[in-house]
Specification:
Length: 92
């Protein structure tokens, strides 16, 4: 299981195929954070699958972000102190 599959373990988009797809999309975009969807994906079919995923009404901000939030909270449970550091550096 790769990191994206672990992160999305609790995903519930109402269809197992969407649950699998969200992990694949996350893995591709996470590996190429500054890239466009076509540049991050491996070929036309995967690019179109990503676009279809984002176009699906079940793929909402909440349904995609909730599993990530759950995984983050689970990682934090073992720590007595968690620092939530934000870098507001800007480059012109």
């Amino acid at each position: 299981m790769n990191w994206a599959e672990e992160e999305m373990q609790t995903a519930d988009l109402g269809d197992e195929r969407l649950n699998v797809r969200v992990a694949k999309v996350l893995e591709r975009l996470g590996a190429h954070p500054g890239s466009s969807i076509p540049a991050a994906c491996r070929g036309w079919a995967e690019t179109m699958a990503a676009y279809r995923f984002f176009d699906n009404e079940k793929a909402t901000f909440e349904t995609v972000l909730t599993p990530h939030r759950d995984a983050t909270l689970q990682r934090m449970e073992c720590c007595p102190v968690v620092l939530l550091v934000q870098d507001t550096t800007e480059f012109d």
